[in-house]
Amino acid sequence: MRKSLTPLGESEMEILHHVWALGEATVAQVRERILKERKVAYTTVMTIMKNLNDKGFLKYYKDGNTYVYSARIEPEEVQSNLVSGLIDKVFKGSTSDLVQTLVKGENLSDKELKELKDLIDDMEDQ
Length: 126
Hints:
Elements: H1 10-22, E1 24-25, H2 27-35, H3 42-54, E2 58-63, E3 66-71, H4 75-90, H5 95-105, H6 110-125
Antiparallel strand pairs: 1-3, 2-3
């Protein structure tokens, strides 16, 4: 089992999603996207992006005086690590308990239930 990445806070995850969407992004570009939803200081975004770099989620290069960030880790890897951590910490390693909680607690539509059944069927056929 490989070492999991440092857990992410809500703001870190939000910024990471913006960087993934943009491919490459400056602090100003990420802040501009966040400002469409809520107010945030430039220095706050800058600090969080630096922290994401320090934690290994982002990387950057310098273009003149501007730092241009990109993802060091793909969304699927982050999602997998976070879900694995959730399963270990909250569900004592039981994936089926997690799935049961999601299915029972989320009031899934008939379409969503069918998609889950089809996914399981496809996995069994492999």
